[in-house]
Amino acid sequence: MVGSALFYELGKYNLKTALIEKENDVALGSSRANSAIVYAGYDPPNGTMLARFNVEGNRLYPKLCEELSVPYRQNGSLIVALCEEDLSQLRFLYENGVKNGVEGLEIIDSAAVRQLEPNLQPSICGALLAPTGGIVGSYEFTTALAESGVINGGEVFLNSEVIKIEKIAEDGSPLQDSKREGFFRLFFSNGSSLTSRFIVNAAGIYSDSVQRLIGKERFSVTPRKGEYYILDKRQGNLVDRTIFMCPSKLGKGVLISPTVHGNLLVGPDAQDGDDKEDFSTSRKGLDFVRKTSTLLSDKVDFRDSIRNFAGLRALPSGKDFIIELDPDVSGMVNLAGIKSPGLTSSPAIAKYAVELLANAGLELKENSNFNPYRKQIRFAELSAEEKAALVAQDPRFGRVICRCEQVTEGEIVESIRRPLGATTLDGVKRRCRPGSGRCQGGFCGPRVLEILSRELGVERESIAKDKSGSRVLFGKTKEPSDR
Ligand SMILES: Cc1cc2nc3c(=O)[nH]c(=O)nc-3n(C[C@H](O)[C@H](O)[C@H](O)COP(=O)(O)OP(=O)(O)OC[C@H]3O[C@@H](n4cnc5c(N)ncnc54)[C@H](O)[C@@H]3O)c2cc1C
Fold first, then answer.
1. Which end of the chain is least crowded, N or C, by CB within 10 Å?
2. Distance between CA 393 and CA 409 in Å, rounded?
3. Quick one: which atom of ligand 1 is closest to the CA of 313?
């Protein structure tokens, strides 16, 4: 998300820009598995980058999502006091939020809480209302930013893990001192390489190891796992706002929130670990989420759970984001350890990163052809007249492939043919949602596979579910001669 936001931002200038990604798609790191809350900005300590970019990012979201056709809703947040002692924390958060520049904050009493959110526990004794809080489709946002970067002239290199970085002079000879101005040569795991004048390290949970490929060891990033429940749309109206408990040392605690697609999200917990690839969920983690959520509401019916998932927060060794020109490597920017509220902050971080690059000598000439708009058809959201007109124009919009989410063949084909098109089952799911509903792809999965195979001109067996190597089909169980 951070890399894609910067890629988008750099599209506003006449530059040659590359977005380099080790996986087979964007939005496969922290940016895919998170709470997707656009935080108002009342809790990061005043004076930190966390606070600055949270509040600035929050303000950028409505217009950006509108222009990029990304699902977003300013539904407001409610931070509740579970007991009398929490009330002083609400007052602290209110004052901190005002200092951070958050607009519209209000402390409300228990009666007002009940009126706004009747399904919360009656014992809740007050709340901080933050009307500027919102919810977003986090992978739609990431993909749209990256796609817009391509539309505006950038290039995306997928399946390209950066494994080595060298500093070189203009004539290609190695530079021993990385503080000297020159070029970077990046070597990828797939055997290719790329030369660039400036580089930005936005490698999420791996941003410490990428920094160490060329810089001195200055910070580390560790994973903190969070597990979630997603519930069927039947539960989606239980609350209207995002409901938080007062933050603790381990973070913002378990929340209950509607999603932009009408589901209910409950989670996360917070487990420190050292495995940066462990996205597993556990009975223990999920039980904790379930039990803790009852402090907010005991009306969530977990029998309607349709999916569990886990995300890994990228915790920097210091308390703040690491956003800087690397002091030991001229021409390199670190956007590292972008923990929560990184999703909210990403558009603002991207703007600041452009300033850092300009300070490092990047010449910024405006791209007069910059196109801020990106359109995406969501058939289910159209009026009956719009649907009829679209089907008349292209009958593939009349063929519903995903019954749960009402996604049509036309939308799936579009998601594959777009500038940064989907090549995997989950890539299609992240772009237009087949498989996100109650049956989780049980019915539409094989159909989507067929469409991918047809559109990409490849065998069905070669199509991955998700990351490279996650195969769906392995071969035939019956050959024609077996019949
Ligand atoms: C459980 C959880 C809940 C959260 N909830 C919220 C929330 O509600 N609101 C909010 O504002 N924030 C939230 N966050 C934080 C937010 O999700 C992150 O701050 C944000 O997604 C970070 O984006 P990123 O681009 O820095 O990292 P990532 O999304 O991880 O992207 C880094 C990318 O770098 C790639 N990469 C790594 N190494 C290499 C390499 N060597 N070569 C090439 N590519 C490489 C990775 O594959 C990845 O795609 C949450 C995070 C988690 C985990």
1. C
2. 14
3. 53
What lies within 8 Å, CB to CB, of 196 at 6+ separation is: 18, 183, 184, 186
Q: What does the pLDDT average to over 449-464?
A: 96
| Ligand 1, atom 30, residue with closest C-alpha | 29
Which atom of ligand 1 has the smallest separation from the CA of 160? Answer: 43
**Ligand 1 geometric centre to CA of 99 (Å):** 27
Kindly report, residue by residue over 244-269, the tens digit of the pLDDT. 999 876 567 899 999 999 999 999 99
152 pLDDT more than 80 = yes
85 CA to centre of ligand 1 in angstroms: 34
pTM surpassing 0.90? yes
Q: Is the peptide bond before 341 cis (omega within 30 degrees of 0)?
A: yes
Phi, psi of 3 (to 5 degrees): -60, -45
Amino acid identity at 197: R
pLDDT band at 441 (very low <50, low <70, confident <90, very high): very high
Ligand 1 atom, smallest distance to 28 CA = 49
Residue 379's closest CA among 354, 407, 357, 355?
407
40 in Cβ contact with 128 (< 8 Å) = no
Q: Where do the domains of the chain lie?
A: 380-474
pLDDT at residue 476, rounded to an integer: 81
Going by pLDDT thresholds of 50, 70 and 90, the confidence category of residue 482 is low
The mean per-residue pLDDT over the stretch 374-400 comes to: 97
User: May I ask the CATH class of domain 380-474?
Assistant: mainly alpha
- Determine the 3-state secondary structure of 177 from DSSP: coil
The strand ranges marked E within 94-202 are 106-109, 126-130, 134-136, 155-157, 162-168, 183-188, 193-196, 199-201
Rg for the chain, CA atoms, rounded: 23
Provide residues with CB under 6 Å of ligand 1.
Answer: 1-3, 20-23, 28-31, 34-37, 39, 161-162, 202-206, 210, 226, 268, 311-313, 338-344
CA of 76 to the centre of ligand 1 (A): 23
Per-residue burial over 22-47, b if 16 or more Cβ lie within 10 Å, else e, is bbbbbbbbbbbbbbbbbbbbbbbeee
Contact 321, 339 (CB under 8 A): yes
Sort strands 305-316 and 221-231 into parallel, antiparallel or unpaired: antiparallel
Give the residue whose CA is nearest to atom 33 of ligand 1.
203
**Residue 246 DSSP label:** P
Contacts with 480 (C-beta within 8 Å, 6 or more apart), sequence order? none
The residue contributing the CA closest to ligand 1 atom 48 is 29
Report the first-to-last Cα separation within the chain, whole angstroms: 50
Reported as a pLDDT band with limits 50, 70 and 90, residue 481 is confident
**What is the percent of the chain where pLDDT is above 70?**
99
Ligand 1 nearest atom to the CA of residue 226, by list position? 1
Query: Under DSSP, is residue 54 helix (H, G, I), strand (E, B) or coil?
Result: helix
